[in-house]
Amino acid sequence: MSTAPIKQIHLAAHFPGVNNTTVWSDPAAGSHIDFDSFVHFARTAERAKLDFLFLAEGLRLREQGGRIYDLDVVGRPDTFTVLAALAAVTDRIGLTGTINSTFNEPYEVARQFASLDHLSEGRAAWNVVTSWDAFTGENFRRGGFLPREDRYSRARELLATANELFDSWDGSEIVADAGSGAFLRDVRAGAFAHRGQHFDIEGRFNVPRSPQGRPVIFQAGDSEEGREFAAAGADAIFGRYGTLDEGRAFYADVKGRLAKYGRTHDQLKILPAATFVLGDTDAEAHESAHEVRRLQVSGQTAIKYLEHVWNRDLSAYDPDGPLPDIDPEVGENTIALGRASVRQFRDPLETARQWRELARAKNLSIRELVIATTADQTFVGSAATIAESIDELVQADAADGFILVPHITPGGLDVFADTVIPLLQEKGVFRTEYEGATLRDHLGLSVPGADQGL
């Protein structure tokens, strides 16, 4: 009786900068903007032989009630700058950056990623995202907003156009000449012309074809449009389902879309984000996880989160008291600006009704309710328990691997690298050394156009 081959696990790490999983009050917490923090995190990820590190991007400081949101007060550095600097202090780890498709232009983005791929010798990756709000767009253009259908249309065309630029150096031969120096025999190198709904550009791309041909393409999003976008052109998708049943359903759905684009299952990796809390024993880890959740959701954080739904100033309410008896204020103008979580609550009145029922049934305060209704840690337990859980989910086709999100900056990945990784290596499901030099090598992806001589 035949059995399915053992899958190799893909693991990466998200730099825990500006997000609600970070515990800033922990004495071990450090800066999310000092370069030393990025270096520590990147070198830990590389020591653990992870596929890549991932940087999110914030294009505007988030606001709530007319004030800058507390996690943004020290700023949000530029993704390309950080990744280029990290390329100089690492050797193998992939370098993935979130770059927005709504406000950027294809020539500029393609040039930056092709340059990063050269500087890193083939380790660059682009997480293609859209932007949903005019508030962020004000940093780029007046009324900087696109309807939902136009955002994905622009993203698809921007990616297609960038790929045309990446491929515009079609292997043209470079010839050395003692008199005039190096010159191109094929004068078509870098020439491009694109005519489309969103872009009408023509010229010559000035960065030669990079070590990977194109950077690895990631997509983050769970919508119907996002899943289809990933199936059509991404190399990997960030999922948000870390449980067996939900993970398998998402995995089957997205992988099932590949065939109509002429793609096979191994051409798209599904990598959910995953938080973790480790302990010497499972019981110790669960006790620590409870404390981490309380630190992640302080009283002030709970009130701010509730304001996303109520769309009102709730600062007068006690986070350890009951939910407000007034209803949410429904409307387009929201108290929280630039916060992705605002989009989660399409029907604030219904959300408030459900939360009141839950709070009454379990006698929950505001803070306790927010803890109960926001994401728990994906993996909690001893190193052995977590290693076993990760392997079980990957072998069951609930994921191809995970993007680890520590709750401490920058040293939160250290204990995972020192305890869980060796156990996965002993099981034979994770590499002990890098076998290739590029990120495509790490992920088992082919070089685009290689079969066409590009």
From TrEMBL:
Pfam families xref list: Bac_luciferase (PF00296)
InterPro entries (alphabetical): Diverse_substr_monoxygenases (IPR051260), Luciferase-like_dom (IPR011251), Luciferase-like_sf (IPR036661), NTA_MOA (IPR016215)
Family matches, as Gene3D superfamilies: Luciferase-like domain (3.20.20.30)
GO molecular function, one term: monooxygenase activity
Domain Luciferase-like: 25-396
EC identifiers of the protein: 1.14.-.-
SUPFAM superfamilies in the record: Bacterial luciferase-like
Keywords, sorted A to Z: Flavoprotein, FMN, Monooxygenase, Oxidoreductase
Family affiliation: Belongs to the NtaA/SnaA/DszA monooxygenase family.
Alphabetical list of NCBIfam families matching this protein: FMN_nitrolo
Protein name as catalogued: NtaA/DmoA family FMN-dependent monooxygenase
